[in-house]
Amino acid sequence: MDAADRHVPVKLDRCVELLAPALKNPGSVAIDGTVGLGGHAEALLDRCPQATVIGIDRDPDALALATSRLERFGSRFVPVRDTYDQLPRALAQVGADSADGILLDLGVSSMQIDDSARGFSYRNDAEIDMRMDTSTGLTAADILRDSDEDQLVWILREYGEERYARLIAQAVVTRRRQRPIVRTEDLATVVREAIPPHRNRSGDPAKRTFQALRIAVNDELTLLETALVSALDSLTVGGRVVVMSYHSLEDRLVKHHFALGATDATPQDLPSLRPEDAPYLRALTRGAEQADSEEVAANSRARSVRLRAAERIGPTRHRSAA
Ligand SMILES: C[S@@+](CC[C@H](N)C(=O)[O-])C[C@H]1O[C@@H](n2cnc3c(N)ncnc32)[C@H](O)[C@@H]1O
User: Fold this and answer.
1) pLDDT number for residue 179
2) b/e map of 139-170 (b: 16 or more CB within 10 Å)?
3) What confidence score (pLDDT) does residue 200 get?
4) Distance from residue 119's CA to the centre of ligand 1 (Å)
5) Confidence at 183, pLDDT banded by 50, 70, 90
6) Average pLDDT over residues 244-254
7) What's the rounded Cα separation, in Å, for the pair 161 and 154?
8) What is the CATH topology of the domain spanning 125-218?
């Protein structure tokens, strides 16, 4: 199966439309921080012929597929295996210290979810791994084995917004005394049985637990927070950033950082605008944009997308504070 068949890029035209005005000049540099199967990167390379695109992914399998898909662009595509919070390190690979466009299409790709061996999905039985980079770090099975009840409750509440976190954590601890929970089907059954049956919930009751474990295994929110600060610092003035989130925890962080940058930080008791207090971002979207019904019908992954975009208009406060 080709890379293009394994993941349908979400809001592809809109992403290119938002980023292209910043990628018109010869020598422009774009970073696709979540290159995945290379769908967005391919469209940027096609439609912004002056730009070099650095494609970052922590998943070596995805990066290999993207690299072969984008081979025809020669040195205009630069693959980097890393996490997306390491933007300066990626920029250094092309001798640059700033980017004109940055794209983050968060979360996991359809390829990762569909590959049952990776254990991301409660729909396919597999070992509960959930690492995006399978060469390093703890698996979700390790976390289920080694965390105490309170730690599990914390993970489920913080990363899954799960109101039955205590009941699920207790069920996990009881169950692992009998035998370890190492398969996705086992975990999904433990969760479904732990939640009161009369509760009318949308979707599979195991969904939030799987989301929480995936975020914990990959340290997703910590990396996103660092990446957002780094992305805004790394943009040239006039540069543009587009972020697509797929759940409210991610979108909340993006909204917060974009709003901070677009707000005048002059203390109330000061009369005049100091340059370091001036807004350094201009929002390019009104709130968060969603996918239209046509796209959702064609690509169910687009259902939960929230897209926010901004343009850098001045020096950031992170840098001037440093
Ligand atoms: C939704 S997919 C991107 C799909 C891509 N836009 C395309 O068109 O094919 C997200 C990708 O980001 C990668 N990823 C997630 N978190 C990451 C991180 N912190 N650093 C680097 N890559 C990450 C995942 O491995 C996955 O391949």
Assistant:
1) 94
2) bbbebbeebeeeebbbbbbebbebebbbbbbe
3) 54
4) 17
5) very high
6) 96
7) 10
8) DNA polymerase; domain 1 (1.10.150)
Q: Which contacts of 225-228 are long-range, i.e. CB under 8 A and separated by 24 or more positions? A: 225/253, 226/85, 227/33, 227/83, 227/84, 227/85, 227/87, 227/104, 228/253, 228/254, 228/257
**CA of 33 relative to ligand 1 center, distance in Å:** 7
Which tokens in the block code for residue 68? 């072969």
Global pTM value: 0.93
Exposure string (b/e) for 250-261, b if CB count within 10 Å is 16 or more? bbebbbebbebb
Q: Ligand 1, residue 132: give the atom nearest the CA.
A: 25
| CB-ligand 1 contact for 58 (6 Å cutoff) | yes
Instruction: Give the Cα separation of 130 and 128 in Å (integer).
Output: 6
**CATH number, domain 3-111+220-321:** 3.40.50.150
Q: Which of 34, 35, 59, 222 most suits a substitution to test ligand 1, by most atoms within 8 Å of the C-beta?
A: 34
Confirm or reject: Cβ of 34 under 6 Å from ligand 1: yes
Q: Name the residue with the closest Cα to ligand 1, atom 19.
A: 83
Q: Is the pLDDT of residue 207 over 80?
A: yes
Q: Mutate which of 57, 134, 245 to test ligand 1's pocket (most atoms within 8 Å of Cβ)?
A: 57
Quickly tell me which residue has 């979810």 as its tokens.
113
Q: Where in the chain is the domain with CATH 1.10.150.170?
A: 125-218
- pLDDT above 60: residue 51: yes
The answer to whether the CB of 15 is under 6 A from ligand 1 is no
Ligand 1 atom 16 nearest Cα: 107
C-beta 55 within 6 A of ligand 1: no
